[in-house]
Amino acid sequence: MQYDNIIHATFVSVEGYGVLLLGKSGCGKSDLALRLIENKKALLVADDEVAVTIRNGKIIGQAPENLRGLLEIRGVGICKYPFKQEEVVNLVVQLKDDATQIERMPKNTAEIIFGVEIQKFDLYAKESSAPDKIMAMLLRTKHGI
User: What is the DSSP letter of 47?
Assistant: First the structure.
């Protein structure tokens, strides 16, 4: 199947909320997804390439067929995981190269993806607390804070 819109990202479903991890190659997208899967009961949606479509004013993401259920783990290789077929993108997490690039008290920001506005946070993926911070971001998103 050919996809019109491919985003270089990693996408997981955490408690039914789609978390799109964006960042440069090597910034920790797949590693953070692994920690969310192993420690926060997240489900993999897509790693490396996320095929997106707009449906009912929402961005829907899924893995291209040849990548479904596959997660690249640095130092281990490609591993097969249970996966969710598709998910709505509810939160965008922009991964930064350095913890000093993260504002201490950030203002609410949004990412526009194909004309759809989605709440966005910046995060340093290599902190041990990064999965917990994503859970806190989701809590804020759920409650509209």
Answer: E
Q: What is the H or E stretch that residue 93 is in?
A: strand 87-95
Structural tokens at position 47: 């790693």
- CA 6 to chain centroid, in Å, comes to 14
Q: Catalytic pick from 31, 35, 47, 48?
A: 48
- 73-86 pLDDT, tens digit per residue, is 999 999 999 999 99
4, 104, 107, 143: the active-site residue = 104
Angstrom distance (rounded) from CA 54 to CA 88: 9
Q: For 113-141, what is the mean pLDDT?
A: 93
Domain 6-142 sits in which CATH superfamily?
P-loop containing nucleotide triphosphate hydrolases (3.40.50.300)
Structural tokens at position 87 = 């998910």
Asked whether 110 and 93 are in contact (CB, 8 A), the reply is: no
Question: Can 80 be counted among the known catalytic residues?
Answer: no
Q: Is pTM beyond 0.85 here?
A: yes
